[in-house]
Amino acid sequence: MRRFLLPAVVTAAILGPVVGLGDVLNIDNGVVGAGHLDVNVDEFGSYGNFSAAHVDNFQPTGAASGQPTFTAGFRLFSGQDRVILSDIPLWNAPPWGGATWTRAPIFFGQNNASTVTSVFRVNNAAGASMLGFNLTQVASAGGPGVGILDQTYEIFNISGSPLAFQMNRVLDADLMWDGDFANDQVAASNGLDWVIQHDSPTQAMAMTAGPGAPNTFYWGGKNTVVPGGGPPAYGFGTDIIVWNNFGLPTSWENHIAHVGYNTPGSSGPVPVQDGHIGLDWRLSLAAGQMTTLTVRTVYGDSVPEPATLLALGTGLIVLIRRRRR
Q1: Which domain holds residue 212?
Q2: CB of 240 within 8 A of CB of 226?
Q3: Which residues are within 8 A (CB) of 100 and not within 5 positions of it... i.e. 6 or more apart?
Q4: Residue 159: enclosing H or E segment and its boundaries?
Q5: 234, burial (CB in 10 Å: exposed 0-12, middle 13-18, buried 19+)
Q6: Domain for residue 319, yes or no?
Q7: Phi, psi of 250 (to 5 degrees)
């Protein structure tokens, strides 16, 4: 049975130098030129140029290296309790107030140039441990012009009681290779397996929850758009709508702006509206139970999915595979 927390002796033997908690570590896929990816991740799996220390760098085919992600990270909700799994300073200041649970980092170390490992807990307001996490983050090459970031969370219920919670992953990309982040498109693939954000035909990025991920929802939002199921309207992505709702709004579940529910297609670049996409897991663990959640983010001019996706065009693309409702 997999246990939370690596024993200290094993940890020291496996991992390289331990850095100060609250810092970032760089992982690099080792590619020079097109397809190069390196990401400054924190111990919770968050990154993005909302913080100068947390940037990701990707070089698409036929273009210069750029920083495509504004914010990427998890928000965790359980009833009326919440916490942001991120060290990004501005994401832990007003208006993101009212966190009732706290992050408790334990270990953060570099395995090698492409891999980092961390261990952390989430505690309730009284300081009691609720969930434990073992996180492994790996950057790799995915073929010509493609970089991949895999983030695998082993999640343990260490509260002593059954626990239901949501893991809400936002990817707020600002794709600037064509000079304008506001014309980014959001989309769902023909098989409704992936949620996508894309720009020009020469750049791409993709995020997946892995094959057959259960109890998972996607969304692709464009600022000011109200889904057909009703308010709230989508915001800019890095805002407080989901945070203040204590979870993903019901009307956002499996919805793509300007497309609809459970329907493949792309929002299009017009009207000009800031875009963002995300994934949402609904999880329930018995006391002592664990589960594994993997987020794969693919940067590049192709994605690891059927050719039907190509009809949507490429660009910076984010994807999710999930079980249909």
Answers
A1: 8-312
A2: no
A3: 80, 81, 82, 83, 124, 125
A4: none
A5: buried
A6: no
A7: -55, -35
Q: What is the CATH number of the domain that holds 206?
A: 2.70.98.40
The count of other CB atoms within 10 Å of the CB of residue 139 is 26
Rounded to whole angstroms, what are the CA distances from 39 to 18, 46, 152, 192, 314? 18, 10, 15, 28, 21
- Specify the number of domains making up the chain: 1
The β-bridge partners of 256 are: 220, 260
CA 241 vs. chain centroid, Å, equals 17
> Exposed (0-12), middle (13-18) or buried (19+): which is 26, by Cβ within 10 Å?
middle
Q: How many alpha carbons fall within 13 Å on the CB side of residue 280?
A: 23
What is this structure's pTM?
0.88
**By the 8 A CB rule, do 254 and 277 touch?**
no
175 within domain boundaries: yes
Q: Give a yes or no: residue 324 inside a domain.
A: no
Beta bridge partners of 197: 186
Query: Tens digits of per-residue pLDDT, 206-232?
Result: 656 554 467 789 999 999 999 999 999
Q: Tell me the C-alpha distance between 159 and 62, whole Å.
A: 50
Which three-class secondary structure state does DSSP give residue 11?
Answer: helix
Q: Decide: 151 and 137 in contact? Cβ < 8 Å.
A: yes
Joined together, the tokens standing for residue 234 give: 């989508």
Supply the DSSP symbol for 247.
Answer: S
- Whole-angstrom distance, CA of residue 102 vs CA of residue 312: 40
For 255-310, give the DSSP string: EETTTEES--EE--S-S---EEEEEEEEEEE-TT-EEEEEEEEEEES--SS-GGGG
Cβ atoms < 10 Å from Cβ of 64: 7
- CA separation for the pair 173, 195 (Å, rounded): 13
Q: What is the pLDDT of residues 38-86, one digit of tens each?
A: 999 999 999 998 899 999 999 988 888 889 899 999 999 999 999 999 9
Q: Does residue 111 belong to any structural domain of this protein?
A: yes
